[in-house]
Every structure is written in C-alpha cells, then in structure tokens.
C-alpha cells in the first residue's frame, strides 16, 4: 500500500463518485475556423446540408438573406463574427468513470489485465453476461411500452378508480408497484411520469407532489423483487451465484411489507391535505380531454397515433410482447437452478422482438406511402404528429420538390428511416440504456483497480470488524447488526458512489472478499449473517434510489428530467426532505422483516 499508485487510484475513484453526484459544467472554446472546417467536412461528406440556423458557424456555405443578416452589423458591414465559440459541456456520471479509467491507464495505475477482468469478469461476476441480460430485457420492456400497453393500463386503472381521488391514489400506487416488479423501475419511470404529469394537469390536481412521489417510491421499491427488474439485482445474483427463485423468495416479503408500510406514510402523514389528494377527481373530463387533445403522455413516434386513451397503438404487438416477456421471465426462473447462462435465455427473445418490430414497420409502413397516409388521415392533429414540420416543409402539393431530392444526405436518410421505414425500431434504440452500460463497465473496472491495490480488502476488514463487534453481544445481535448496518451503509452510499449501480458493484466485491478471507482463515460466519448482509445490500441499493439525491439512481435523474420537461420542478431540498420519512420507514420495516425471515429460513 506504500505505492503511490494505490493512493492515486483511491483518490480518482472518490473524485469520480463525487463528480457523479455534483456534475461539473463548463464551456470549451472552439475556434471559429475549426467549427467551419467541421461543418464544411460534414457537408462535403454529405452527412448534412448547410442550414440557415447554422449561418454563424459556416456563413459562406448557405448565403440566403437570413444568413446574411446573421453576419452583418447594423451599419451593413459584413463580419465573420467572434473568432472563438464557447460550447457548453459537462463531466457527470456518464463521462466521469470513462475519464477515470483512461487516466488510470495513462498513469500506469491500471493494467490491461484489470480492464479485461472488469469487462469479462472475475470471482463469478461476469459483466458481459449481466449487460447482455440487462439490455435484452430493456429492449423488450421498451418495445412493449411503444405499443401503448402501459399507458392503456394506466387509463384503465383510472377508470376503475372512478371519481374517488383517494381510491384512485391507491389503485395507481398498486399499479405502479406491480408494473415495477415485472418490467423494472426505469420503464415505470418512462411511461408513468409523463402520464402523471398529464393526469394532474387535466384533473386540476396541483401540485402533483403526492402522485409523482408515490410513483417514484413504489417503482424503486418493487424493482427489488425480481433479479431482472434492476441491474443491481443482476450484479448480486451473479456475484453470489443466487438463482432467480432464491433471490425473489428472499426479497418479495420484505418488499411487500415495505410498500404496505410506506403507503400510510404517504397518504396519512406527508400528503393528507385535500389539495394533494382530493376526494373527487373528474375522470369524465380527463377522458374527454384526452380524446380531444390526442393524449400523448409519452412521445412515441413508432406506432400509429390513436385518438382515445383506451386504445392501444399496436394491439397485436402488445399481446405478442406481453406473452414473450412473460415466457422469458418464466424460463429465467425455471432454469436458474440449472446454472444456465442468463444471456442464452434473454438474448434470443430480444432478437425475436427486434425481428417482430422490423416486420411490423415493413408491413405497416412499407406498403403505404407517407403521402397516402397523410391524405387519408382526417385529424389535423394526427397529421402533425405523423409528419413533423421538418418532413413536410419541402412538400408542394403531393410532389417532392427538386431541392428535397438534392438533399440526399446521411441525416435525411436517417430521418426518412425514422419516419417512414423503421419508426418503431428507431424510436426504441435511443431509449436503450447504452450510457448506463458504459457506466457499469467502467465501474467494474474501477472496483477491480481498487481490488488490485488492496483497498477492497481494507473495506472488507472494516465490515468484518463491525460484524465482530455486533457478535460479542450474541448471534442475534450479529444478524441484526449485519442487516441494518448494510441497509444503512448501502442506502447512504447510493448518494455518494455514482448511483446505486456503483454502490452495488463496490459493496458486492467487499462482501465477496470478506467471505473469502473468513473461509481461508477458518472463521465461521453464520448463514443468517451471510444471507442477511447480501439481501440487505439488495434492498438497500433499490431503496436508496428514493433517499437524498437524484443521482442516487439513474431512475432519479430520469424522473427529474421528465418532470422538468413537463413543467414540474422538484428541488433537491424538496426531494431529500420528502424522501426522508419514506426511506427511514423502508429501512426499519424491511430490516425487521428480513431479520425475521432469515431466522425462520435458518430454523
């Protein structure tokens, strides 16, 4: 540990996590000549065409009247504008881990073998396997969302709730909880947040604080049940060789108990006033407004627009996707005791879903021209949704202008694919959590670097000392200390270790080293303590998402950004103060239930 590389590695790791919580925003100077060169190169390679909006970047390429105005002074003298342009950028949880890995490689603090172990895997943790499973399930869930199934179910729940605001609040709470169990927290955030923003606006429930916090809390609680519902669960099942059945059997009861305990806190303590949860909600007005405005709580360009909230965008796709996802999850559970690689089970269904989406696009959009669809659509609002301004500006009557034909570029080809050829596929791909995959790989590599330089062993010794201190008061105290200690540590570290994924990767490795050292030293660890520590980590990293900072999870950042786009601002202070009683209740209740559970299972 005397090597400076070890100190440097730890400092870089801590700074990476700190930047993940507090992103650094700054501006980078870009000479005008460089920007002009890039623009000219892009035009020369036919990636794009010079546009009027880019006249300040390359004014010599497109000299219309508007572009000339952009580069003239008031007296009419033409100028080239500033010689340097400042472009805003940021170092955040997406870029900081990659920069840290490159920095450690450049200084020799990280070896190529460590990078390989961080990607391929070691100690029964296979990041490639985990990422394949995660991306496959994410694609199926997002594809299912584009059919409008989740939005359809949300409106169905609203209708079942009737005009009772309190009953509707409970129904939506249960709906988001059940949805999160099967599809995970991120899809629930993606479809549920825009829906609630629309619902609260139309029904006049302002502020919508009670509804959006209930959705965010229950989505992150329910994701603790199945390994497939959250990337953190997949890391733990791989690290400790848990079957899907075993994992779900240990987490479902504490999760349900926590959800049952958190609801009264939301309903009776935090949001008991009628302005948060009114006694009556005018559902008729809600449905009528949705019909008139062509309800679009989620911006889906992939499927055919619909007029009524009770209709599916793609009925056959919803049925097909639901059956396929259900079969996939059932096979995952059924084959988990057989030690079959999970990617072999999830990747083929994802490819089947991908093939079906392409087939749907080609059969629906390939046999009809966009102009024909445009002419047959009776709704002006639907026309605008199907044909954005960028796609229709160059249409004169029913013919495409020669100018449009000349603009055969990569971007125009992509836009045509997105609007007329493969709209479903190209609306799903941008929503895939690719940045999260890169972040996870980099965190695996950084934790491997900490392991190489001995830091993980030090952290494991701290945990062993805590267990020993609790064990001096008896085995029951040892179990209680392990479970509640890990719940508290993992929950707080979610806010400090670059989301709950970084926390899971680090603490899972710490527990692995703790168990390995205990086995090599012939130190007996009670199974209740072992299982309690691991499953407390599973619960803590899921519940930690609704703790103190948005950056505690990707779902938190996503939730905040969607709400901001809908005009709903949730401040950091409000987020932390509202979640404080919720996470406190979750830790106490889930810890108590887990303690009882491991004792019953052990006996």
Automatic annotation (TrEMBL):
Its main location: membrane. GO terms for biological process: transmembrane transport. Residues 289-310 are annotated as: Disordered. Residues 99-355 form the Citrate transporter-like domain. InterPro entries: Cit_transptr-like_dom (IPR004680). The keyword Transport applies. Keywords: Cell membrane, Membrane, Transmembrane, Transmembrane helix, Transport. Residues 300-310 have a biased composition (Basic and acidic residues). This is Arsenite transmembrane transporter. It comes from Pyrrhoderma noxium.
């Amino acid at each position: 540990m005397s090597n400076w590389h070890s100190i440097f590695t730890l400092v870089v790791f801590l700074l990476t996590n700190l930047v993940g919580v507090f992103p650094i925003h700054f501006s980078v100077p870009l000479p005008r000549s460089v920007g002009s060169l890039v623009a000219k190169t892009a035009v020369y390679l036919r990636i794009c065409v010079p546009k009027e909006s880019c006249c300040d970047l390359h004014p010599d390429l497109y000299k219309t009247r508007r572009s000339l105005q952009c580069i003239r002074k008031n007296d009419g003298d033409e100028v080239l504008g500033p010689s340097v342009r400042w472009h805003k950028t940021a170092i955040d949880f997406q870029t900081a881990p990659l920069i840290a890995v490159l920095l450690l490689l450049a200084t020799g603090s990280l070896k190529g073998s460590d990078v390989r172990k961080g990607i391929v895997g070691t100690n029964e943790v296979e990041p490639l396997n985990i990422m394949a499973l995660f991306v496959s399930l994410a694609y199926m869930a997002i594809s299912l969302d584009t059919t409008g199934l989740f939005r359809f179910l949300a409106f169905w729940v609203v209708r079942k709730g009737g005009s009772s605001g309190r009953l509707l609040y409970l129904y939506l709470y249960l709906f988001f909880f059940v949805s999160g169990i099967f599809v995970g927290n991120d899809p629930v955030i993606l479809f549920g947040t825009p829906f609630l923003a629309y619902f609260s606006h139309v029904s006049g429930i302002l502020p919508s604080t009670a509804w959006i916090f209930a959705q965010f809390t229950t989505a992150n609680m329910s994701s603790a049940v199945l390994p497939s519902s959250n990337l953190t669960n997949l890391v733990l099942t791989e690290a400790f060789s848990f079957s899907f059945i075993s994992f779900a059997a240990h987490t479902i009861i504490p999760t349900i108990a926590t959800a049952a305990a958190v609801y009264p806190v939301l309903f009776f303590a935090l949001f008991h006033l009628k302005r948060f949860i009114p006694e009556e909600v005018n559902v008729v007005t809600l449905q009528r407004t949705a019909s008139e405005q062509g309800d679009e709580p989620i911006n889906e360009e992939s499927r055919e627009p619909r007029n009524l909230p009770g209709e599916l965008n793609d009925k056959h796709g919803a049925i097909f996707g639901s059956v396929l996802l259900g079969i996939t999850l059932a096979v995952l559970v059924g084959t988990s005791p057989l030690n079959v690689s999970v990617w072999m089970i999830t990747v083929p269904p994802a490819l089947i879903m991908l093939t079906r989406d392409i087939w749907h696009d080609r059969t629906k959009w390939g046999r009809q021209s966009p102009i024909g669809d445009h002419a047959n659509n009776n709704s002006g609002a639907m026309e605008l949704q199907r044909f954005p301004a960028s796609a229709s500006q160059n249409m004169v009557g029913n013919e495409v202008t020669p100018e449009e034909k000349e603009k055969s570029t990569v971007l125009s080809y992509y836009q045509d694919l997105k609007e007329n050829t493969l709209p479903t596929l190209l609306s799903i791909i941008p929503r895939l959590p690719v940045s999260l995959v890169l972040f996870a790989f980099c965190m695996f590599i950084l934790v491997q670097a900490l392991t190489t330089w001995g830091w993980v062993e030090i952290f494991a010794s701290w945990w062993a000392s805590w267990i020993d201190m609790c064990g001096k008061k008896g085995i029951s105290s040892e179990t209680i200390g392990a479970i509640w200690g890990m719940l508290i540590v993992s929950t707080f570290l979610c806010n400090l270790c670059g989301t709950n994924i970084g926390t899971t990767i680090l603490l899972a490795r710490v527990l692995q080293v703790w168990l390995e050292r205990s086995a090599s030293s012939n130190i007996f660890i009670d199974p209740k303590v072992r299982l309690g520590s691991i499953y407390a980590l599973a619960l803590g990293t899921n519940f930690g998402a609704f703790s103190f900072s948005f950056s505690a999870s990707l779902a938190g950042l996503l939730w905040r950004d969607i709400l901001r786009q809908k005009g709903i601002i949730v401040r950091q202070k409000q987020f932390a103060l509202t979640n404080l009683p919720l996470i406190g209740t979750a830790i106490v209740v889930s810890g108590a239930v887990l303690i009882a559970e491991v004792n019953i299972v052990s006996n």
